[in-house]
Design a protein that fits this description.
The structure holds two protein chains of two kinds.
Chain A (H helix, E strand, L loop, with lengths): L2 H8 L6 H14 L5 H13 L4 H11 L3 H10 L11 E6 L2 H6 L1 H12 L12 E6 L11 E3 L2 E3 L7 H9 L1
Parallel strand pairs in A: 1-2
Antiparallel strand pairs in A: 1-3, 3-4
Helix pairs in contact in A: 2-3, 4-5
Chain B lengths: L5 E6 L2 H5 L2 H14 L6 E6 L11 E4 L3 E3 L7 H10 L42 H6 L4 H9 L2 H11 L11 H9 L7 E6 L8 H8 L1 H15 L3 E6 L4 H16 L15 E6 L9 H8 L23 E5 H13 L1 H5 L9 E8 L5 E6 L4 H8 L9 E6 L6 E3 L9 H6 L8 E6 L4 H15 L5 H18 L7 H15 L3 H5 L2 H9 L1 H9 L14 E3 L9 H5 L5 E2 L7 E2 L9 H5 L5 E3 L1
Parallel strand pairs in B: 1-2, 5-6, 5-8, 6-7, 9-13
Antiparallel strand pairs in B: 1-3, 3-4, 9-10, 11-12, 11-13, 14-17, 15-16
Helix pairs in contact in B: 5-9, 5-12, 6-7, 6-9, 7-9, 8-9, 8-10, 9-12, 16-17, 17-18, 18-20
Chain lengths: 168, 593
């Protein structure tokens, strides 16, 4: 194994006592529920922030199901990510109203301001840019979602301010 | 019991106490004693009445006047004005809330609110607010006065049809499940409202969750079901939170769980969250997702009523369908059936987005014309522009032109016109919208959300998207339109689920009604609406440009050059045609060619 793989493994939540105990308690709380896989993965994603390959193997082992089953579910749903995200995530709504209302322009501006593409994280690990499906705030198009907060009527000129707040 | 002509409720929330609520209340009582009014007016303590940031505050009944920002020194004046002279002391009345409910607001003309009746009026996190609005009265009536068969008959007679889009009579589905033996049956609420531009269900779940719960409990009683699931999409975290609060409150009051209202009927509910997959709005995919699997649809039959969740008989209805049920039970089938037209009864909520003056949510009776919706309810097209098309039914629906505006809004008419009812997203487009680009946008969406299980949908949508991309880039060829038509037909007839079968509709309908736009893109290499980037260019008119530099500062690719106070120029080779410069220009100096 090369050093990058070793360091990625060393930093993986399954090798971190605190994070592993979070995963364990999520599994233990939910494993007897019918259809537990989705519930567990949803919780792990929201509390740990991503579901790496070794986490998938660990969950599969504990639940006694094939890793392929877990990986199949993780790769199917867009909310599950296998890589850690930045500290803050900025999502651009690509619903129809937002698309017509100027999300494409906003995305141009964001890419230029941060020098990264959609789906990427800034080198300092602070901000991840993503597009997302309609968040249902269509009357305020165009909409962006910064972490859990929905911001409406965002103009390209307002975007740098959003970035500054994330960087603080 | 002693009678009082007036009651004063003083807020004794910690915030208000901190600001002197105790002192204000003491002063108030002293003043009432001094004026000899203490036997006519009662002073009571209460919990939070406003938001306390402008406390101390109080409420005066029966008038219902809300006084805020009070101090001890204000009390003599207030008592004299209000209780001796009978005039409202306007100085302390909180001004009308400036926060406007942009989604809903007051009912507009021609609206009838059944499902949205409580939205914005009650506190969704307080079950007592819902009960005060006749909440759970229908449940009581159903459980104590009606048999399950009577409930089914009433809802059947009301004409309530599935609001998820397909329009199947709701109570007929219940009767299928009711006919199944055994107690292992499931009731599912489809709250996976994935259509872009549709947010009716989100609003109901966030503002009136108990109406959905009550509808579900009644449906479960009718179909003899003990366990229910609400499948809510992960994009709606607030709805999930509100639902969980509502479920816990209902459980604490004995409205969920064992022996509901002492009737011997057991039913419990759980919220399950999706994880961002549009196809999970399809009922078989949704059930696979609840089971913890990849949300892939499967062929029907078997229908969920025969083999649903975990292979057991299951009933799936949409949020809005359930939210209608309590009102039908309470007010009767005839009342409900009196709204709407012959085949589509009752009301329907729509989320209006796009280029109309009033965007947001509306609820109108079925049978209303599209014209009435666009011009009467929604106040017409923004900025005095021309109506071009209305898109109904979400990404699986079609675009209807001005010539179809007099169509009545109901399930059959929409399908006959080559669109569909869908869950209720309506997007109104003005003359500046390129129909080819819109078809491309929807295709991009369905192509991306196709689960990949069946080939026509997985490969076919990709092929359509490639052709549309080419047309928008000005590289359209002879025969493209015919290929599109063929692909649409094939995908429609051979796909497994509603996603694939509906995916070609936006292309088909725009080809039908806006064929000349496709032809302009392909043969003249022109985008009539000036939207498609490869077919347009931006230009600064030198005689209007003041050289204010706002465009060059906002240009994401630094394509605009020019000295301050001198006319600027756009370098067409660098320009990505994002249109930001045109948006920010204060002098309308930038034009599109």
């Amino acid at each position: 194994m090369n050093s990058a793989v070793i360091s990625a493994l060393a930093n993986d939540p399954v090798n971190n006592t605190d994070q592993k105990s979070i995963i364990d308690s999520i599994i233990n709380e939910n494993r007897t529920r019918p259809g537990a896989t989705m519930v567990i993965l949803n919780e792990v994603q929201s509390q740990i922030g991503f579901i790496s390959e070794s986490m998938q193997s660990y969950i599969a082992q504990t639940l006694r199901v094939p890793v392929s089953t877990i990986h199949g579910v993780v790769s199917f749903y867009s909310f599950f990510t296998t890589q850690p995200r930045g500290k803050h995530t900025i999502k651009f709504c690509m619903g129809t109203a937002c698309y017509v209302g100027g999300t494409p322009q906003l995305i141009e501006k964001a890419k230029q301001a941060l020098g990264i593409d959609m789906g990427q994280t800034t080198p300092d690990g602070k901000i991840t840019l993503e597009v997302c499906r309609c968040v249902g705030a269509c009357s305020q198009a165009p909409v962006i979602v910064v972490d859990d907060e929905t911001l409406g009527r965002v103009k390209p000129s307002k975007f740098p301010q959003v970035v500054r707040q994330c960087q603080e | 019991m002693k009678y009082f002509r007036s009651h004063i409720l003083v807020c004794k929330d910690p915030d208000c106490i901190h600001k002197g609520a105790h002192e204000v209340m003491d002063a108030l009582q002293d003043e009432l004693v001094a004026e000899g009014l203490i036997n006519e007016i009662q002073v009571l303590e209460t919990s939070r009445i406003g938001n306390c940031w402008n406390g101390p505050e109080m409420m005066v009944y029966p008038e219902g006047i809300h006084y805020t920002n009070l101090t001890v020194d204000d009390i003599p004046y207030l008592v004299e004005e209000h209780f001796l002279k009978g005039r409202i002391a306007t100085r302390f009345v909180e001004p009308e809330k400036s926060v406007k409910d942009e989604e809903l607001g007051a009912p507009k003309s021609k609206e009838i609110r059944v499902v949205l009746r409580n939205c914005g009026k009650i506190d969704p996190e307080n079950i007592e607010d819902y009960i005060a609005e006749d909440g759970y009265a229908a449940l009581g009536k159903a459980l104590t006065e009606m048999s399950p068969t009577q409930v089914i008959e009433t809802v059947l007679a009301s004409g309530l049809r599935g609001r998820g889009g397909a329009g199947f009579p709701a109570a007929r589905k219940w009767s299928f499940v009711a006919a199944k033996q055994g107690s292992d049956k499931f009731l599912i609420c489809n709250a996976d409202e994935g259509d872009p531009g549709a947010f009716m269900n989100r609003r109901v779940l966030e503002s009136d969750p108990h109406a959905v719960l009550e509808g579900m409990i009644i449906a479960a009683y009718a179909a003899g079901i003990k366990q229910g699931y609400i499948y809510c999409r992960a994009e709606y975290p607030i709805a999930v939170k509100t639902l969980n609060i509502a479920i816990n409150q209902a459980r604490a009051m004995g409205l969920l769980g064992k022996d509901i209202l002492g009737s011997g009927f057991d039913f419990d509910l759980e919220v399950r969250m999706g994880a961002g997959a549009f196809v999970c709005g399809e009922e078989t995919a949704l059930m696979a997702s609840i089971e913890g699997k990849r949300g892939e649809p499967r062929p029907r039959p078997p229908f969920p009523a025969d083999s649903g969740l975990w292979g057991k008989p299951s009933n799936v209805n949409n949020v809005e369908t359930y939210a209608n049920v309590p009102q039908i039970i309470l007010k009767g089938a005839d009342w409900y059936a009196s709204m709407g037209n012959e085949k589509s009864k009752g009301t329907k909520t729509f989320a209006i987005a796009g280029d109309v003056n009033n965007t947001g949510l509306i609820e109108v009776p079925f049978g209303i014309s599209l014209r009435e919706i666009v011009f009467d309810v929604c106040g017409g097209i923004k900025d005095g522009k021309q109506f071009k098309a209305i898109q109904t039914g979400g990404p699986m629906g079609g675009c209807l032109p001005a010539s179809q505006l007099d169509l009545p809004m109901d399930y059959e008419s929409m399908t006959a016109a080559g669109s569909m009812m869908g869950s209720g997203g309506l997007i109104v487009m003005d003359e500046d919208t390129c129909m080819v680009d819109i078809a491309r946008f929807f295709m991009e969406f369905t192509q991306d959300e196709s689960c990949g299980k069946c080939t026509p949908c997985r490969v076919g949508t990709r092929r359509i998207l490639e052709i549309l991309n080419r047309i928008c880039e000005g590289k359209g060829r002879h025969g493209d339109i015919e290929t599109l038509e063929l692909l649409c037909k094939e995908i429609k007839s051979t796909s497994l689920c509603g996603l694939g079968q509906g995916a070609p509709t936006p292309v088909e309908s725009t080809l039908k009604h806006f064929r000349e736009e496709y032809e302009a893109h392909i043969f003249q290499k022109k985008c009539p609406a000036k939207v498609c980037k490869s077919l347009i260019s931006y230009e600064i008119q030198p005689d209007i440009c003041t050289g204010c530099t706002v465009c060059s500062r906002n240009c994401p690719v630094e394509a605009i050059n020019g000295e301050r106070r001198q006319a600027h120029k756009i370098d067409p080779d660098v320009c990505v045609r994002c249109g930001i410069c045109m948006q920010v220009c204060n002098f309308n100096a930038i034009i599109v060619n």
